[in-house]
């Protein structure tokens, strides 16, 4: 699906990898802009006919996109959740994060925030509650909501679709070993930001989404994952990886030991210094 956001940061760290980079002075920046992708009608009709929700958008971005698509005051869609009657799992406790499925949605003449949100949630339920996902979650000792939560982290952390399965395996390996996930994406969610610039102070944040300090999965998904991320979350490849870092675009290194991970981080830092050097 076409994305209307800049690419995510190329750094993907777990455990002490982020702190190692902070210590050596590496700075990472990335942005995500909530701009709805709208298809206009024929013959110059200014009214959009469809709305594209990309994979990985958070609920707040989607609410803003719906407001813009329907030409409503900012905040209207968010306020409509309580009366939308969304068919969410009990674990969600009324929070639709993770269940606003990324897809192209028609904007019918009588479309409302409630009808669009219901369409998204109903689509997610069809995708997630079918046999493949439900059986995959059960096979990994998860319920579907937990699988969606893992998929949301995979969606946020993987530098490419090809990396999604390995990122999922890192998550499972850390959970099985009783290690904190230590994913920057969960801290970013807690701070409602998109820029990846995690500091040591950030890792001390008092939040259930601080996966540096809290064990297990965050209490909810951290974005709305697509089908590829969900497939990775329920079908991770075998492997003993516990760490990962993208040394350069297209080159994500997965490591089973911290020592190996440190070497990969050193390569990343060397590449950063080289790219920052003035050309002659």
Architecture overview:
The chain is mainly alpha-helical and 280 residues long. The protein contains ten helices and five strands, in the order αββααβααααααββα. It has helices spanning 17-23, 59-69, 76-79, 113-128, 131-139, 144-157, 164-176, 184-190, 227-234, 258-276, and strands at residues 37-40, 48-52, 104-106, 243-248, 251-255. It has a three-stranded antiparallel beta sheet, covered by helices on one side. Strands 4-5 form a two-stranded antiparallel sheet. It is globular.
Keywords:
single chain; 280 residues; mainly alpha; three-stranded antiparallel sheet; two-stranded antiparallel ribbon; 10 helices
Quantity of strands, as a count: 5
The tally of helices reads 10
Distance between the termini: 40 Å
Question: Which strand order do you get reading across the main beta sheet?
Answer: 1-2-3
Task: Return the structural class.
Answer: mainly alpha
Poorly predicted runs of 5 or more residues: 1-12, 15-35
Beta-strand residue percentage: 5-15%
Spatial extent as radius of gyration: 19 Å
Provide the fold topology.
Layout: H1 17-23, E1 37-40, E2 48-52, H2 59-69, H3 76-79, E3 104-106, H4 113-128, H5 131-139, H6 144-157, H7 164-176, H8 184-190, H9 227-234, E4 243-248, E5 251-255, H10 258-276
Antiparallel strand pairs: 1-2, 2-3, 4-5
Helix pairs in contact: 5-9, 6-7, 6-9, 7-9
In short, what is this structure?
By secondary structure, the chain is mostly helical.
């Amino acid at each position: 699906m076409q994305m209307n956001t800049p690419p995510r940061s190329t750094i993907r760290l777990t455990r002490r990898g982020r702190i190692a980079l902070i210590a050596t002075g590496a700075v990472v920046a990335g942005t995500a802009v909530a701009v709805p992708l709208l298809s206009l009608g024929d013959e110059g009709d200014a009214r959009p006919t469809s709305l594209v929700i990309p994979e990985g958008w958070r609920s707040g971005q989607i609410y803003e996109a719906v407001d813009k698509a329907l030409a409503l005051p900012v905040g209207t869609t968010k306020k409509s959740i309580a009366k939308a009657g969304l068919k969410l799992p009990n674990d969600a406790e009324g929070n639709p994060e993770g269940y606003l499925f990324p897809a192209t949605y028609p904007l019918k003449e009588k479309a409302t925030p409630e009808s669009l949100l219901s369409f998204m949630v109903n689509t997610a339920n069809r995708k997630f509650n079918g046999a493949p996902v439900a059986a995959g979650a059960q096979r990994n000792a998860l319920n579907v909501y937990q699988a969606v939560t893992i998929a949301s982290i995979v969606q946020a952390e993987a530098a490419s679709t090809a990396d999604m399965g390995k990122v999922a395996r890192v998550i499972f390996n850390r959970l099985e070993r009783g290690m904190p996930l230590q994913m920057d994406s969960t801290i970013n969610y807690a701070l409602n930001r998109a820029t990846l610039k995690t500091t040591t102070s950030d890792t001390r944040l008092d939040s259930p989404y601080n996966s540096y300090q809290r064990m297990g999965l965050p209490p909810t998904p951290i974005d709305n994952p697509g089908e590829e991320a969900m497939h990775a979350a329920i079908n991770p490849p075998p492997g003993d990886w516990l760490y990962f870092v993208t040394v350069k675009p297209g080159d994500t290194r997965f490591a089973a030991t911290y020592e190996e991970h440190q070497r990969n981080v050193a390569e990343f830092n060397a590449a950063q210094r080289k790219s920052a050097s003035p050309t002659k």
